[in-house]
Amino acid sequence: MSQTIAILTGASRGLGAALARELLAPGTHLVTLARHPDDDLAAQAAARGASLEQIAVDLSDAEAAAGVAERIFAALPREAGRYLLINNAGTVNPVANAAALDDAAAIGAAFALNVTSVMLLTSRFLAATQGLAAKRQIVNISSGAGRNPNAGWAVYCSTKAALDMYTRVVNAEHRAHGVQAVSLAPGVVDTGMQETIRSSSPESFPALARFQEMKASGKLSSPEDVARRILALTARDDFGQTEIDDIRNYA
């Protein structure tokens, strides 16, 4: 039996892909959720003798998210020493001035991915691990955008603010029963999301020049470094004591 069972969303690109590779370790059974399976990750798992299960799912489809959450946690082994859920999947789109946010489908898909899927997976995680004598950890990948407004990011800022508050509610309900939940901002990471941000128009996203300058001057963190720091944080004895946190607080 694996010592750790880790469930990771958004595992095929960027920070999620880096987290997945860091989690390929002896004693860990990794379950990844992404739109497409990662053949390179599967090859690395085989080479390392690591335990990996990849599930293809579009988490912006709330019905699909609910179905996969039920399936994963109905089959969850109950003998592990640690259960780790990392809700990493997310989108910055749609990027637009609030006066131009009129695409209901795009707004709904963003909320479904950034918030609803987190709630569905977390609900099943909590129910499936309730009463176990094991460490139960939840990491919700949030953003400084949920704590500070950015023009053009009404949807992204709102969803990440919702994620922060949801984490606080989970702790209010479940911390006394041993659950450790953290809403964690990863800083500005050099991922595909940053490419999307830099392709925005200055009319839709007035801070565009600042993000372009950060890339040009090498100020973006690498996904690999941030992934290592996030997993190191989950191993600390004080993990969970700061429920709204930022990985940049840890050297």
UniProtKB/TrEMBL annotation:
GO MF annotation, one: sepiapterin reductase (NADP+) activity
SMART domains given in the database record: PKS_KR
Signal peptide: none
Superkingdom of the source species: Bacteria
Boundaries of every Ketoreductase domain copy: 4-196
GO CC entries: cytoplasm
GO process annotations (BP): tetrahydrobiopterin biosynthetic process
Compartmental location: Cytoplasm
Keywords on record: Cytoplasm, NADP, Oxidoreductase
Main location: cytoplasm
PANTHER family: SEPIAPTERIN REDUCTASE (PTHR44085:SF2)
Name under which the protein is recorded: Short-chain dehydrogenase
Organism name: Pandoraea nosoerga
Source species taxonomy: Bacteria, Pseudomonadati, Pseudomonadota, Betaproteobacteria, Burkholderiales
